[in-house]
Amino acid sequence: MRFRVRLHNHIVAAVLPILLAMTAAALPAMADPSRLDSLFERLRASNDADARQIEREIWIEWSKSGSPAMDLLLQRGRDALEAGDTEGAIAHLTALVDHAPDFAEGWNARATAYYNAGLLGPSIHDIGRTLELNPRHFGALSGLAMIFEELKRPEKALEVYRKVLEIDPHAEGVPDAITRLTAEIQGQDL
């Protein structure tokens, strides 16, 4: 009997790490706050060429809800947006924010869908929720600045674009927008 117990213990000891690794690999991924902190530090210190890759890595982290079902809803919403099916995108992304109200990227994706549908009020609402959950979301801030421009509020747009650059000094197109808006506010044409 003792032999069996010892053999069983050895088998468990040998197999357990493999089972734990397999289980961990099967668990849904969630955004890792310490990885995000590191990515943002690297982003601020990077050059323009490296910044694009670091931004992509940040977006990948932001897209991890921790639930395969919620990740699927996010992907379906994004796919619908890419296919030009704004209504379908809004439906998928509404289901996502209903089921995962603390997942910032769901709100941000739906804000984009609303913007594409010309629904600026709902888009602004969802951007606000995104920023409550993730104040460093430079994508949501950029979208808000674009909306302020569309609403003919250049001072607010300029303020938000400057905030984007504080977070992501390499944000594509933002320095040009700041230059353009500064000239517009000062009454100059470029």
Automatic annotation (TrEMBL):
Protein origin, superkingdom: Bacteria
Keyword terms, alphabetized: Signal, TPR repeat
Annotated coiled-coil segments of the chain: none
Keyword ATP-binding set for record: no
Repeat positions for TPR: 138-171
InterPro entries referenced in this protein's UniProt entry, alphabetically: TPR-like_helical_dom_sf, TPR_rpt
Keyword Signal included in the entry's annotation: yes
Lineage: Bacteria, Pseudomonadati, Pseudomonadota, Alphaproteobacteria, Rhodobacterales
UniProt protein name: Tetratricopeptide repeat protein
